[in-house]
Structures are given as structure tokens and as C-alpha cells.
Amino acid sequence: MSVAEFDFVIVGAGSAGCLLANRLSANPDHRVLLVEAGGKDDWFWIKVPVGYLYTIANPRTDWCFATEADPGLAGRSIHYARGRVLGGCSSINAMIHMRGQASDYELWAQATGDDRWLWDGPGQTLAIYKELEDYFGGADEWHGAAGEIPVERPRVRWKILDAWQAAAAQTGIAPIEEFNRGDNAGSAYFHVNQRRGRRWSMADAFLHPIAHRPNLTVYTQTQALRLLMDDQARDDQRRGAWTTAAHRASGVRLLKDGRTVDVHARREVILTAGAIGSPHLMQVSGLGPAGLLAQHQVPITVDLPGVGENLQDHLQLRTIYRVGGARTVNTLYRNWITRGGMGLQYLLMRSGPLTMPPSTLGAFAKSDPALASPDLEWHVQPLSLPKFGEPLDRFAAITPSVCNLRPSSRGHVRLADADPLTNPKILCNYLSTDSDRQIAVRGLRMTRQIMAAPAMARHRPEELLPGPQLVSDEDLRQAASELGTTIFHPVGTCAMGAFDAHGLPRSADTVLDTECRVHRVAGLRVADASAMPTITSGNTNAPVMLIAERAARAILGSTARTARPCR
């Protein structure tokens, strides 16, 4: 067995891992290892925005997880895409740049007892977002233009989506300029993480520009098997801020090129393997709920009941309407001449339908006027298909999908056995609360109101899913169960939380403190979507970057005394 040593070992080269590798390796005194189970991101379809049709559900770029049969989904198991490639999910996701709403971060501040998560204020959430951005409109009170993450307008518009937006306005959902100012009420075309019509993943933004650094090593096609642990009491000088920890993460056992490799971390191990991968690696390493670990004969290192619990996701309810009098992707794609034209338009001008994210137009509204901020979001697509991965329908249609932004249902991620190469069991428990079922019905009814508004009349919309024959609340609850599917936003499985005066977590779900440090395990952080105590309003990639940046600053603050400038 070979052994290597670094200062920091980062597990997972997704969005957060790429940022952390960038920030930590900026100090040439830090030797940094970034580990990725998947391969390089040099495949053509990763860079073409519409290539998500080929990267999702493809084992070349996707873990291809499947959920457990879910009672809330009429007993169905669904595909659960997670990126398995440099850039992680940002190499296969919807490219939508969505910060969430100010109210989301109020919940984070309450959960962690840390007001630095609040939306506005010096060094707080909005300020960090601005520092990370390279915004197409230049710097202003809402945006920055000196950061690494490109934020662009979509490069194609659709008349049928403009009509939908006008119809939404007639039902009280007004057009707005954008969604990233803290209150998203209204409708707008989504801003995207692209650069001149190409997907710009977080590997493009943070990793590739600094890959030449001699103190940064990247392992691809390398899977983390388990965390290596030391007795903390034997290593007092490394305890740092984790003064109550009985154990310390000292490295990671890897499977690389068919061989087992142990890599040691002099300072920290940082998990950025996502809301599925990070808790699973912790569990097979003996960090998790004691009962679960004992059930699978995994030696218990630290009983952490919250590891793998608190899983939250946005359930999208896909409705399909046949339309007339307007082009849609369906009608363009069924003709080889127009397909060829789309390809030429992309190759020559980097514009047109091949630059489209999976959803182009969005809308936010309240399911109840008494709410302080919107709790429903629509992703509207100028296309339709029976289900993801199947051919487009051969008639003109649109798909307005609605989701509950703040679900109260909670699921879990749990190891299936002690073998780290066995996929974990994922149970989302969608629609398991009365509140979520009621909001699902309201979302479907509000979708019908928009489609029935005068602005849509000339397009003669015909409801195909769930179907006009479904009228009662019970009918629509059942439809939500049969139609609902993930929008690929799992979070919360190693949640940040607050601690009492004795250093004990105030909630059983709490795994991390506000700086993403694992409770009772020194030298270990989790800095990815797992850390969110509650899900944000909309797509989750941008909030993951916020978490990673905050974690990087916390780490660098603790090592600043030894830092020197990078040349």
C-alpha cells in the first residue's frame, strides 16, 4: 500500500471542491490534493449547454443513483443524478444561477446562531455572492464583475414563453428583471453560468485556471473508500479549534488505478462529495448514527445521529400542455433540416436552442398571500417529453413544472452495507406531510390559472398532464404523487447547526458548526450542499459556492500566520 502526505485532502472535485482547491493552493506553503471519483471534463457534450441530455443518466458523468421506492411517489423509484466528473454537478446541471431569497438565509442564521449568514451586511451573504460573480451587466449594488463565476443572459428567447410570462402577469405574477436580489416574487428568464454560449462549470471557473500550480495535485478516477482516524488525545498540537474532539481525521484511504492508497492530511480533510457522497463516506468510516452503523457491522468511531438525515429536495410537478401557433423545441427537432440549422447556429454564433438550459423561464409566487416570501417556483420549458431520457413528443408543447421551495418532508441517505463501493440507500420521503401535499395541489391549480389566462388563448393550450378530468383535491394529490420527480437539489444531510454552552448540538440533525467543522471529529469539514440546514429557494449551485467560500475563509483565517503570497 502506497502512502502520500498533503496539508489538505479535498474529497470531491465538484463545485465546492474546485473552489476550495483554488483558495487553499493559493498559498504555496499548502500542499493540496483534490480527489475525484470520475474522469476529466473534456467531453464535447459537457461544454455544449444542451448536452445535459447526454450527460445525465450516463455513467461517464453521472453516479446514476436510484432512490428507494418512495411512498410519496406512488411507490416509484426515480433516477437521482449526481455529477461524477471534474466539476461535479456543475458539469451536468441546469446552469441556472440562483442565489435563493433573503428569507432562506434568515433561516440559516437562526439554525446556526450566526448572523453572518444573513443576506445583507458587511462581509455577509450578498457581499460574498458579489465577490464571486462576473456579471454580464457589470458591477452594481446587486452584482460583482471581478469574480470567477460567469453570469450571463440566456442566448435564446421563445415567443411561447413570452406568452406564458404575460399570462402569469395576468394572474398576479409580474415580470421582473432577475431573481437574485433577495425577493424573487415575479417572473423572468433565468440567468445562467455560461461564457459565450458554452457551459462554464465550477471546474472551468476555479480549477482549470490554476491547475498548473506545483503545490496542487488532482487525482481523477479515484474513489475515496474511508476516512483514516487518529486518537485526538495523542495529537494535542493539532487540535486547534476542535478542542472537544476525541478523534481526528488524519487522511483518506483511496482506490486509485486498482490499488489502495492512503493519503494523510497534516491539517484537514475536507469533504465536498455532495449531499449523497459526503454522508455515505462518513458512515462507512464509522461516523454516523450508532444504531445504523451497528446494524451493518461498521465499527463506531463517533455516534453522530444527524449524518445522512435531514435530506431535503425540491419535488417538481411536471405539467404538459399541447399548444398551437408557436415554435417549440419539439417542432424544431422533428425536422432534420431545422435540427441541422440549430447545430450551425450554435457552431457559428454560439446562440440558439443548443445554448438552452433545461429550463429557460421561471416564476416565483406565494401559495398563500399571508406568506412573507414566495414558496412556489415554476421552471417553464418550450418542449415536452414523456420522461427524462425519452424522445421529445412529436407535437408542439410546453412543460410548466412547479415545485414547493420549502418542503417540510425529510428523507435520508444511509449506507446499504459496510462496503464503500456499494451505493447508499436514498429515501426522499416526498409529500410525506400534509403541508407539502396541500402546497402541491395549490401549485397545480395555479398552473392551470396561468394556462387559462387570456394571454395564452391564441395558443389554444390543451392540458395533457395531469389531465383536465382531474378536478378534486384528492385527484390532484394523487397526480402529484404519480407525476412528481426530483429537480436534483438534495441538501442538508450533514447540516450546520447551533451548539449550547457545553458544546452540544441543539438539534439531533446538527453535524457541523457554522464553519462546516464536524462535531467531535477534529481535522474534518464538510463544505457542500450537505451543510445546508434548510434548502434554499431554487437551484442550489450558487449557495454551495457561498458555503465553500465561507469555509475557505475560515480555514485560511486559521492558517494566516504562516501564509505567504503565491507567485
Automatic annotation (TrEMBL):
Keywords: FAD, Flavoprotein, Oxidoreductase. FAD binds at V85. Residues 274-288 form the Glucose-methanol-choline oxidoreductase N-terminal domain. The keyword Ribosomal protein does not apply. It is an enzyme of class 1 (oxidoreductase). It comes from the Bacteria. Pfam families: GMC_oxred_C, GMC_oxred_N. PROSITE patterns: GMC_OXRED_2. GO terms for molecular function: flavin adenine dinucleotide binding; oxidoreductase activity, acting on CH-OH group of donors. Its cofactor is FAD. Its EC number is 1.1.99.-. PANTHER family: CHOLINE DEHYDROGENASE, MITOCHONDRIAL, GLUCOSE-METHANOL-CHOLINE GMC OXIDOREDUCTASE. Belongs to the GMC oxidoreductase family. This is Glucose-methanol-choline oxidoreductase. It comes from Mycolicibacterium chitae. The gene is alkJ_2.
